[in-house]
Amino acid sequence: MAQTQRDAVCIYKGKTRHTRFIPFRQSFAYRLFLINIDIDRLAEAEGVSRLFSVEKPNLFSFRREDHGTRERTDLRPWADDQFTKAGIDLEGGMIRLLTLPRHLFYKFAPISLWLGYGPDQDLRGIIYEVNNTFGDSHAYVAPIKAGRNQHMAQKNLYVSPFFDVSGRYRFTLNVSEEKLGLIVDNIEDGQRLHMASLTARQSKLTSGALLQAMFSRPFSTLGVSVGIHYQALKLWLKKAGYRRRPAAHPTKTSLAKPIVAPHIKNT
What we know:
alpha+beta, 16% helix, 12-stranded mixed beta sheet, 3-stranded mixed beta sheet, 4 helices, 39% strand
């Protein structure tokens, strides 16, 4: 059956929510938007809107150096290598990157999703690219298919000064061409310490859509870091224990294994 070609880049509009469970409960939520871009069609994505550029300054933009090897080089070899290490063969199929866009001079995305497809556009692999505000990143790679997927991986990145680098991540992903649902649980000793969720729906990238998203979803860009530091201040005022940044993990990639969800205590 012939497959229709998707746009080189589009928008996903939605909401994220974070909840801390231990030793006290604290939650916050905000609306955001992301871009979903085909990493092999960057030149085509460049021409979609006058307000969106690739490798050049603009109201919103995408730069290869914000992902993968953090260099201005082709993203495909790095992504293919991650998938290959996890035993995932895309056979040259497309790879789409779902991430927060760069806004003017600034870019920070706590998590970006690399979706790997086979030649018939069947979903085969996922890279959960997790970043912290200190400039570190770690990739968790796993096989996936369309619909609901769950994966477990050892936590190997210092994400917050109020959590140890311990326990495991449980990724619950529900993805289709039109919408996305993601839950990331930090679990230790059978208890859920922290939960971050993202729900979003696809829409077309146009100049009007970018302008509307900029004003209605300010936490999609610089506001993400402002929000993170504001929430950190609230935790510090509540006397949450502060953890010093440890030495970086010796590798930057981990395999996330498909799981049958364990029983998790909610407190």
